[in-house]
Amino acid sequence: MLFQWKRWSRIILLNRTMLWVLFVVNAFGTIYGFMWYGNQLQYTFNTMEPWLVLFVPDSPTASLFFTFALLILLWTRSSDGTQKKRPSGVMRWMEAMAAVTLVKYGIWAVVMIFAGEIRGNELQWRDWMLVCSHLGMALQAVLYTRFFSFGFGSLVLVTIWTISNDLIDYQFHVFPWLPKELAGDMHWIPWFTFFLGLGSIALITLLSKRR
């Protein structure tokens, strides 16, 4: 049964039409995500050090890397899904970045949305749209990690990036803007983010072992 699932999931997930559909969806989602962060990007650029802008848009950056990872799969895989060429070191790093950050920020956004609701923030249709899209981000990472070629070295680099990003986010206050209802919860949110990042790295490491 497990063998059949792996076989059919491989056929479906590596189908070139499926990959192109996901590429288009993630490309448009990435553009929308950067637009969503537009006000915070402008505020950060105008009131803080300009280089901090790079650390503001977490979720769209994750989907951007996954968009690149899909192109890598299309370039390195033949029509039957078999690998015809090995990705370069930079490509493998991009795959690892996509996998880890999709899980981390996909889950993070959903938790923050519902945490805001618990504190009294009334959810709107856009919140439910974000919940669905961010859960989809995490699911994509879970489904596609076994087709990526990254190894230990790439995961080490992603770990350094993830920890550095968290330190910069909460040291310089460039983390994604939260509902005002969560203003009193900053004693646990940075720690949650940090350990979620480590948990995401651990999950992706385990999934990559199942290739």
Q: What's the end-to-end separation, in Å?
A: 17 Å
Q: Any idea what the radius of gyration is?
A: 18 Å
- Listing every helix as H and every strand as E from the N terminus to the C terminus, the arrangement reads HHHHHHHH
Major sheet size, sense and barrel closure: none
Mean model confidence by pLDDT: 94
- DSSP strand tally: 0
Shape: globular
Number of domains: 1
Helicity range of the residues?
A: over 70%
- The unreliable regions are none
Descriptors for this entry?
211 residues, globular, single chain, mainly alpha
Structure description:
- This protein has 211 residues and is mainly α.
- The chain has one domain.
- The protein contains 8 helices and no strands.
- It has helices at 2-13, 16-36, 38-47, 58-76, 89-118, 125-144, 152-171, 189-208.
- The radius of gyration is 18 Å and the shape is globular.
Summarize the SSE layout with pairings:
Elements: H1 2-13, H2 16-36, H3 38-47, H4 58-76, H5 89-118, H6 125-144, H7 152-171, H8 189-208
Quick rundown:
By secondary structure, the protein is mostly helical. It has one domain.
